[in-house]
Design goal:
By secondary structure, the chain is mostly beta strands. Helices cover 4% and strands 46% of the residues. The chain has three helices and 34 strands. It has a four-stranded antiparallel sheet, with no helix packed on it. A hairpin with a 2-residue loop joins β16 and β17. The longest helix is centred in the first third of the chain and has 6 residues, at 76-81. The relative contact order is 0.10.
Length: 417
């Protein structure tokens, strides 16, 4: 037992015996073996500096902890050499906040599955994530701010979480029917969870205004029972002030020479996601082909970067569904975008590797070993998730040596506020 930390339930020792991780009922500790006396008087505790709390306020910490401990990067070295700002990430059944010195704390815990990348509000006051409570089918929203955590249920298939530029509302795309071809965007007050307005279509901020993915201009008149009556022909529209104009639509994108070699090119195209860049000159969309036999099943999806001024696609890459999530994210500065690809090594072993792409210049940079995990708030660093922790890599550094940030290699989102 350590003062203020409770009884240690499990201890993991590295192979060299120099690193020890202790797990209590609610904390993960780094234990300094050389500071723990071999014998202690009855009723006494080890010195306070013999254990450092890495994570506290944890639910079921033993489930989340690797069987082999890793060294922790924390303190002045990390603060001086790595990116500044706070990080948010999901681990186990909790939402965490990580400080620049490597210290972390659970800011909310849930009995259920937290999904996706957390999002900071523009001012950094709130951080949000979606989760599905144990035993529930409907997702819920979790928003943590200065006054605590707010939770509210969302309808089935809700997605597209995004913050308004002023941070006063957080929005979600919510389907209006069971076929997932008609949507509304519902805004909520992050402090109370109360409804704050509805917009037809799937709306998100970007492109210098508000982008809206329409429900489609027409319905499929004939086909299988799965596709007849399905609304297709989605438009991407930009609203700036009182002006509303169409940037592009599904058919126009599908006809681009950039996508002429996509499999299933003859099938009906659908735009399924809007992924705006922080550079107002470009937006990203996912374009897929409709399966002729299975409702809601898309084939041959591609990530396409579109120029906002004229609607022309400037970059396209196929998304292999079997590869799993891309964890795609735009840089907060400029128009670089990072994601993960699968690589097959000796013996057929598949590993995930991060890449950073400039879709305008059509340039790609492979990252050092590890998965792409996110961007720093200033866009100068990328985060790499590895088995032995979270690292930060400065893109303009020569040589590029990653800096260790945390012992947990997870997907993160950052804020410098």
């Amino acid at each position: 037992m350590f003062a203020g930390a409770g009884s240690v339930r499990r201890v993991v020792v590295s192979e060299d015996g120099k690193r020890v991780i202790g797990i209590t009922d609610s904390r993960i500790l780094r234990i300094e073996p050389t500071k723990v006396p071999r014998t202690l008087p009855l009723g006494s505790l080890p010195p306070a500096d013999a254990a450092t709390t890495l994570l506290s306020g944890i639910r079921e910490p033993d489930v989340w902890t690797a069987r082999k401990p890793v060294a922790v990067a924390r303190g002045n070295a990390v603060a001086a050499d790595g990116p500044k700002g706070r990080l948010a990430f999901v681990l186990g059944q909790a939402l965490w906040e990580l400080q620049p010195d490597g210290s972390a704390r659970a800011i909310a815990t849930e009995r259920g599955s937290l999904t996706g990348r957390p999002l900071w509000s523009p001012g950094g006051e709130h951080v949000s994530v979606m989760f599905t409570a144990t035993g529930e089918r409907q997702p819920s929203a979790l928003v943590v701010g200065p006054t605590g955590a707010q939770r509210w249920r969302l309808p089935t298939a809700a997605q597209g979480m995004t913050w308004a530029p002023d941070g006063k509302t957080v929005s979600f795309w919510i389907p209006t029917g069971t076929r997932l071809d008609q949507w509304n965007t519902h805004a909520f007050d992050p402090g109370t969870g109360r409804a704050a307005g509805t917009i037809p279509g799937r709306a998100i901020w970007g492109g210098g205004g508000r982008l809206v993915l329409s429900d489609g201009e027409f319905e499929i008149a004939t086909g299988t029972a799965a596709t007849t009556g399905l609304r297709v022909g989605q438009r991407v529209e930009l609203i700036t002030g009182s002006e509303r104009r169409t940037i592009t639509d599904a058919r126009r994108l599908a006809a681009s020479p950039l996508l002429k070699d996509v499999p299933d090119a003859s099938r009906t195209p659908l735009i399924t996601q809007l992924i705006p860049s922080l550079d107002p000159g470009y937006i990203g969309v996912t374009l897929a082909r409709l399966s002729a036999t299975q409702l809601g099943t898309m084939r041959s999806p591609a990530f396409v970067v579109v120029r906002v001024s004229d609607g022309e696609p400037v970059y396209s890459v196929a998304i292999p569904i079997e590869a799993g999530p891309l964890d795609l994210a735009w840089s907060p500065v400029g128009h670089l975008v990072g994601w993960n690809v699968n690589e097959t090594g000796p013996g057929g072993q598949v590993t995930r590797r991060g890449v950073v792409v400039d879709p305008v210049a059509d340039g790609m940079r492979s990252l050092p070993q590890g998965r792409f995990a996110g961007w720093s708030a200033d866009g100068k660093w990328v985060y790499l998730a590895r088995e032995d922790g979270l690292f930060a890599l400065r893109l303009d550094a020569v040589p590029a040596d990653p800096v260790r940030i945390s012992p947990f290699g997870v997907i993160v989102t950052s804020t410098d506020r």
